[in-house]
Amino acid sequence: QRNLQINQIFHQFTTEKEVWPYSIDESILDMTHTWRLFGNSVCEVARLIQKTVRQKLGLYTTVGIGDNPVQAKLALDLYAKHNH
Predict the structure, then answer these.
(1) For residue 83, which phi and psi values (nearest 5 degrees)?
(2) According to the model, what pLDDT value does residue 22 have?
(3) How far is residue 70 from each of residues 9, 58, 60, measured CA to CA in Å?
(4) Is residue 44 within 8 Å of 84, Cβ to Cβ?
(5) What is the CA 82 to chain-centroid distance, rounded?
(6) What is the pTM assigned to this prediction?
(7) Sign of CA dihedral 15, 20, 58, 36
(8) Which residues contact 66 (CB under 8 A, 6 or more apart)?
(9) Which element (helix H / strand E) includes 24?
(10) d(CA 74, CA 71)
(11) Known catalytic residue: 44?
C-alpha cells in the first residue's frame, strides 16, 4: 500500500508511463522531459520529491541520480544509501 502511495506522488512529477516500480521499495523515474518544470537542477527536483513524500507520508527516501537507470541504481546503492 505504501509503495502505491509513493508512486502516486511520483506521478505528480512525471507521467505514469515514466514511473517504473523496480521492487517493493524502489522505483525508477525517467524525468528527462519533466524535471525542468519543477526546479533549476535535477538535484533540486530530487530533493523536492523527497520532501513531498516526507510531508505527505512521513517517510524518508533516498535518491540515486544518473543518465540512465543503471547509473541511477548504482548511485543509489553505492552513494545515496550511505550518505546523509
Answers:
(1) -135, 145
(2) 87
(3) 23, 28, 22
(4) no
(5) 17
(6) 0.89
(7) negative
(8) 72, 73, 74, 75
(9) none
(10) 5
(11) no
- 25: helix, coil or strand? coil
- For the chain, give the longest Cα–Cα distance: 32
What's the CA gap between 25 and 39, in Å, rounded?
25
Q: Residues in the chain with pLDDT < 50? A: none
The structural domains of the chain, ordered by start, are 2-82 (3.30.70.270)
The one-letter code for the residue type at 20 is W
Which of 16, 18, 26, 44 is the catalytic position? 26
Please give the single-letter amino acid code of residue 30: D
- Report the b/e string of 36-46 with b at 16+ CB within 10 A: eebeeebeebb
